[in-house]
Amino acid sequence: MGSLRNPVGSLPSTVYWRRRVLVLLAVLVVLALILYACSDSGSGKKKPAGNGKTSPTASQSSLSQSGSSSASASGGPSGSAPGTSNVPSSSAGAPSGSSAGASSGAAGGPGSSGGASGGASGGTTGGAVGGASGGTTGGASGGTTGGVSGAPVGASGSCQLSLLLTQASGQYANGDHPSFTVTALNKGTADCDVDLSPKSLVLTVYSGSDRIWSSADCTTAGPDIRGIAPGTAQTVAYSWDRVRSSPGCPAGGQPVKLGNYFGVVSLAAGTGPNAPSAQSQPKVFELKSGS
User: Fold this and answer.
1) Of 49, 55, 241, 285, which is most buried by a Cβ count within 10 Å?
2) What is the tens place of the pLDDT at every residue in 64-119?
3) Is 143 found in the same domain as 165?
């Protein structure tokens, strides 16, 4: 054991230690090469194919080709789907091409590596052509149908009427008749055709909840149909004689008392879509004594 730890010879001990390390490395390299060769020989055995003649390379090629054929067969519907939003038409056309590709692949599969590649290419071509034709047909028919049935219809516009009630003054002395102006403004995109006569565009005066007077009670005027273009307005003037009225205009109306009143104007709906109903905000005023 002493000679192993302390080499004996004419050369320095470091030389002998280096030689021992080199020999040990050489032995390890040889063992590694032997193990590598054994592992290669174990994994390189040929697996028997269906006819006993196909090499591992051909077997792997046929498997990869059949996988690509299956992918093309199943890819028909998905490839044709983006053609249109109506999926049923395109999906109906795609499976025929996919089935052709799959049957071609199955027919060409058995045999040598050439047969496998031929079957795979046939399946791929059939699937691609079938998927493309199905997608094109489905996309065209679905797109046409969807375009016709789903085409947006442009809005024809509408009449939107706004009523504004203004008055000459907020206070009226003895002998002064309250006067008002009604402005009918079309805020819509289509013409308004409305009746602005006193029986349709009605100004009503109230005292609290008590109905005092209405422009429709005693008027004898006929219809006053006016066309109001979008963004334009029509005005109508009213004056109240400070006498109470009732529907049917019975005789003997009494003058009203002094105090606070308010007026509001409303428009009855006409017979067409361009004659809508509308109502203004109330306007308060006072009847007082003095001049």
Assistant:
1) 285
2) 444 444 434 344 444 443 444 444 444 434 444 444 333 433 333 443 333 334 33
3) no
Within 13 Å, how many C-alpha atoms sit on residue 246's CB side?
A: 5
Q: Do 168 and 179 touch, CB atoms closer than 8 A?
A: yes
Euclidean distance between CA atoms 91 and 93, whole angstroms: 5
With contact defined as beta carbons under 8 Å apart, do 288 and 261 qualify? no
Domain that holds residue 139: 56-147
For the chain, report the end-to-end CA distance as a whole number of angstroms: 144
Is residue 115 located within the same domain as residue 170? Answer: no
User: pLDDT tens-digit profile of 156-170?
Assistant: 689 999 999 999 999
Residue 208 binned pLDDT confidence (cut-offs 50, 70, 90): very high
Q: What is the mean pLDDT of residues 256-262?
A: 95
Residues 14 and 72 in one domain: no
The number of folded domains in the chain is 3
Which residue's structure tokens are 């999906």?
A: 91
Would you call 43 helix, strand, or coil by DSSP?
helix
Tell me which residue has tokens 């006193």. 198
CA 99 to chain centre: 35
**Residue 49 is assigned to a structural domain of this protein:** no
Task: Indicate whether 195 and 283 sit together in one domain.
Answer: yes
How many other C-beta atoms are found inside a 10 Å radius of the C-beta of residue 199? 17
More confident residue, 149 or 273: 273
pLDDT, position 10: 73
